[in-house]
Design brief:
about 350 residues, alpha/beta, Quinone Oxidoreductase, Chain A, domain 1, Rossmann fold, 17 strands, globular, binds NADP nicotinamide-adenine-dinucleotide phosphate, binds zinc ion
Length: about 350
């Protein structure tokens, strides 16, 4: 199927319109008209080649919401007209212990990412959600709860699940003390989800200007990371810190904030960090951990949780042709709090 998207052709050129072919429908595939796609900082990292291995042309986008237009003969869970979603994965081996345990993100044979990944059958590079249409294996398609405003669901597919998964792994519930470092796309979802789970939530930010928003999103406290006295007063006061900072940074100021047995879970920077001093780890059995998105079952769980609790991301709606400005603003941490592309702003090419 001929379709259109916005692609990066190199690390240092803007995204431009790009016409291409989506693969034909396989027996277990779902064809989706994309209505909305969220803009994740990982899209920017990939398009700009911050991480090794970007294959160009690259079409980013892994927070996809759309409507089913066709299904293959073996598809049983979805029908034409359903409102569905696709996150960061479109396939995995489905055969290893991790896949059997609903943790396809840790598939022993490597999951297939929604973009910049070889298709398991053809080997073609996958192209993401900054486009009009996508075709995805049924097992990787999610159901969107009818109660949610469809224009605001997209960021749950990456920002939502990536922060929900560590909250669940470390059993966050009523009375848990959670810190969130970095109040951007992931960070603002961490606040809403931790509050929804009953935690006491503190935002730890470089940006004093975000304090009022943090409180509106439900956070109980706000800590400015450069305020040494406030950081000292907050020592030993967290069970879990979710760190969403997207670049190389220093964890040392955050470690003493954890209580004994507390964990700082990295979900932001993928790559080197500043040198870590072991003293707070040893002196308080504190841990540094990491976490990658979440499995398909857990992604459905967070969608359903948000459906029940009416938790929705804060979205700034943009047109597809505003994506390059959106990337520039995201680099400056100037997003409240997730850009979402309204895909009706992108014209479909003639079928010729
Ligand atoms: P974002 O919307 O740009 O937010 C990042 C936030 O981090 C900013 O709002 C800012 O918050 C803080 N920040 C930015 N630059 C900083 C710096 N130089 N030093 C300290 N703090 C800084 O990004 P996002 O979409 O939330 O993504 C965050 C990171 O998570 C990216 O690296 C992305 O690739 C990664 N990611 C990982 C996974 C995973 O599975 N683990 C999934 C999705 C995304 P303040 O203004 O409050 O300080
Ligand atoms: Zn993402």
């Amino acid at each position: 199927m001929k379709t259109i998207g916005y692609a990066a052709h190199s690390a240092d050129t803007p995204l431009v319109p790009y016409t291409f072919e989506r693969r034909g429908l396989r027996a277990d595939d779902v064809a989706i008209d994309i209505l909305y796609c969220g803009v994740c900082h990982s899209d920017l990292h990939t398009a700009r080649g911050d991480w090794a291995g970007t294959v160009y042309p690259n079409i980013p986008g892994h927070e996809i919401v759309g409507r089913v237009t066709a299904v293959g003969p073996d598809v049983s869970k979805f029908a034409v007209g359903d409102t569905v979603a696709v996150g960061c994965m479109v396939d995995s081996c489905q055969d290893c212990d991790r896949c059997h345990d609903d943790e396809e993100q840790y598939c022993r044979n490597g999951f297939t990412a929604t973009y910049n990944s070889p298709d398991r059958i053809t080997g073609d590079n996958t192209l993401g959600g900054y486009s009009k249409h996508v075709i995805v294996r049924e097992a990787f398609v999610l159901r969107v709860p009818a109660t949610l405003d469809v224009s605001r669901v997209a960021p749950l597919l990456c920002a939502g699940i990536t922060t929900y998964s560590p909250l669940r792994t470390w059993n966050v519930g009523k009375g848990s003390r959670v810190g969130v470092v970095g109040m951007g796309g992931l960070g603002h979802m961490a606040i809403k989800l931790a509050v929804g789970l009953g935690a006491h939530v503190t935002v730890i930010s470089r940006s004093p200007s975000k304090e009022a928003d943090a409180s509106e999103l439900g956070a109980d406290a706000f800590l400015i990371s450069s305020d040494k006295a406030a950081m000292k007063a907050a020592r030993n006061s967290f069970d879990l810190i979710v760190d969403t900072v997207p670049v190389k940074h220093d964890l040392n100021p955050y470690m003493p904030l954890l209580d004994v047995d507390g964990t700082l879970c990295l979900v932001g920077q993928v790559g080197p960090l500043e040198e870590l001093v072991s003293v707070p780890l040893i002196m308080g059995r504190r841990r540094v951990a990491g976490s990658l998105i979440g499995g398909i079952a857990e992604t459905q769980e967070v969608l359903d949780f948000c459906g029940r609790m009416n938790i929705l991301p804060e979205c700034e709606m943009i047109r597809m042709d505003e994506i390059n400005t959106a990337f520039e603003r995201m680099e400056k941490a100037d997003v409240r709090y997730r850009f979402v592309i309204d895909m009706s702003s992108l014209e479909v090419p003639d079928a010729a």
